[in-house]
Amino acid sequence: MRTLLPVLLALLLLTACGTDAKPAMEVLEVPAFSLPETADAEPVSAPAVVTEGRAPAEDYDLPPSLAAVQEHPRYNMERWASGGVVELLAEAPEADAAFYGLPYSQDARETALIRWGDSLAEFDWYFATPRMFPPRMAAMDLDGDGEHELAVLTYTGSGTGVSVYDLHVLEKNPDGTLTDYAMPGSLWQEQVPPLLQFVQTGGRNFLILGRELLEIDTDYIPEDGTAPSTGWIADFRLLPEERAVQLLGAVDLWKTTNYVADYTANVGYRDGVFTLSQFHLQSF
Fold first, then answer.
1. Once rounded to an integer, what is the mean pLDDT over residues 150-154?
2. Are 64 and 227 in contact (CB under 8 A)?
3. 3-state class (DSSP) for residue 171
4. How far apart are CA 53 and CA 72, in angstroms?
5. CA angle 83, 84, 86 (to 5 degrees)
6. Most Cβ neighbours (<10 Å): which of 45, 133, 144, 204?
7. How far is 231 from 103, CA to CA, in rounded Å?
8. Within 13 Å of residue 248, how many CA atoms lie on the same side as its CB?
9. Residue 136: which of 84, 73, 204 has the closest Cα?
10. pTM, full prediction
């Protein structure tokens, strides 16, 4: 009996302790966090859309420089859009160059008259939307050949989630005529998206461009695995002192103009070919 008593007491103590024992800690399963290896984004290139300027249809009476009249080009755009007048819409005084809108007609394509020194040439460009953003221009040696090119930006697309400028690079030929080398929209619309990656890992969302990674915060992620696109955003910085042009764009995940990030790229130009390089992602 004495030998059994300690055993019985021990069992009673274990039973009492068991009634007060806390439940085992719940273990949460956390998705594994991993990101793909990154590599430098390769430059992408495309040949320019080339258009020869044509001689002016008539001897236009050209208005004075914007500096002389101290007027904002936006006002000139509005007067030009009312029709029937030639208006100075942009200028690059450092190159003695100017952009004139020729008399506007609602049923015809816009026509630009470019004066560069003694050279005059007409181009059928789109450069007006209901937002009436005026063109921009600057002279710089983009290709490093010692001669200035004339970089011209025209606003061609506007709306909800849409804001597009076209980039024209004008070269002056030995005979004084002007040739337009326009950057094709396909360069940023079609060749940049394959450089972008969208990654979901560990409950987080990332964009990858080259070696750059940006975490994005978005309430909606497409279930069909839609690849990132560059949507309908393209602006440019003209940087004459740096002899450079920079593209400013945006990234859309599901092609509905709901943008989640910005990107930039350097725009190179040489021998009629445009190249985008040195890409950077930025928070939207």
1. 98
2. no
3. strand
4. 27
5. 100
6. 133
7. 33
8. 10
9. 73
10. 0.85
